[in-house]
Amino acid sequence: MSRLLITGSGGMLGRDLLAVLRSRSDLSVTATTRADLDITDPDAARAAVAGHDLVINTAAWTDVDGAEAQENAATAVNGDAVAHLARACAATGTRMIHISTDYVFRGDATEPYSEDAATSPVNAYGRSKLAGELAVTQLLPDTGYIVRTAWLYGEHGPNFVATMLRLAEEREWLDVVDDQWGQPTWSYRLAEQLVALTDAALAGHASPGAYHGTASGATTWYGLARAVFTLRGLDPDRIRPTTSDRFRRPAPRPTYSVLAHQRWATADLQPLADWRSALAEAMAEAMARAPVRPS
């Protein structure tokens, strides 16, 4: 029986990972939250990794704007702590899958970024995540896997889809930016992909390096908002397109965060399906779970 360590298991992706792994009686899973394990403590990281065959690190500093003012703190979690885990894995021969982000790229491309495209983050959050990637690459050249994702939404955490549905009940009109491109990605489908990569890695069928864990296809935030309204039976024309300069934020955002998915073929795995079909399934499941309101 293979033994897995999941860090950040209290987050949106971590909770979905545990749900996917629940049916795997062939895998022994140790789940740790931030309260259980301080990955910025190298001794704690070393002790946690011991005895495991593979680590999936979903723990992260995720406050993009907050990182602009606290870059050292963000890097301690997204960079230094990743190095602690990778160093512990290297010492014990443990494989590691680390979750990263599209923000490691500059975001000004005109075609999807390949897995080996040059990195050049435009904000502190991206720099902190790149530091984590470099730690995995340098310390685990043969047993380290980096999975970059973007535009995540899901059941267990704040996200754009949930925000649109909440605002739909509060406002008649919503202005949403139409000049940032990306790939809306359902966290549950990403969790399934990570488990598939885990199986391939443990079996020796997956080459180390970077993979892109985003849905296929691409849209803008405006396009995503319209799709959410349409699927909920709301009028999508209540969504009005606008530009990023109308929403000034501390951290600059990439304008093009579309990632290519060629690397999955090397592990005999298919990339994630189109974002539209995943969104439809996710929203249908959410509606089925929703409590019935009294009439």
Account of the 3D structure:
- The chain is α/β, with parallel strands linked by helices.
- The protein has one domain: 3-Layer(aba) Sandwich (Rossmann fold), CATH 3.40.50.
- Helices cover 39% and strands 17% of the residues.
- The strands form four sheets. The chain has a six-stranded parallel beta sheet, with helices on both faces. The chain has a two-stranded parallel ribbon with strand order 6-9. A two-stranded parallel ribbon has the order 7-12.
- Helix 2 packs parallel to helix 4 (71-92).
- The longest helix is centred in the first third of the chain and has 22 residues, at 71-92.
- It is globular, with a radius of gyration of 19 Å.
- The termini are far apart.
- The relative contact order is 0.15.
- The mean pLDDT is 96.
Describe the structure concisely for a colleague:
By secondary structure, this protein is of the alpha/beta class. The chain is built from 9 helices and 12 strands.
Defining key terms:
295 residues, alpha/beta, Rossmann fold, two-stranded parallel sheet, 12 strands, 39% helix
Proportion in β-strands: 15-25%
Question: What is the H level of CATH, i.e. the homologous superfamily?
Answer: NAD(P)-binding Rossmann-like Domain
Provide the number of structural domains: 1
Helix count, DSSP H or I runs of 4 or more residues? 9
CATH topology name: Rossmann fold
Give the ordered list of helices and strands.
EHEHEHHEHEEHEEEHEEHEH
- Mean pLDDT, all residues: 96
CATH architecture title: 3-Layer(aba) Sandwich
Secondary-structure-based class equals alpha/beta
Sheet with the most strands: spatial strand order: 2-1-3-4-5-10
The count of strands amounts to 12
| CATH level 1 name | Alpha Beta
From the spread of the alpha carbons, the general shape counts as: globular
DSSP helix fraction: 25-40%
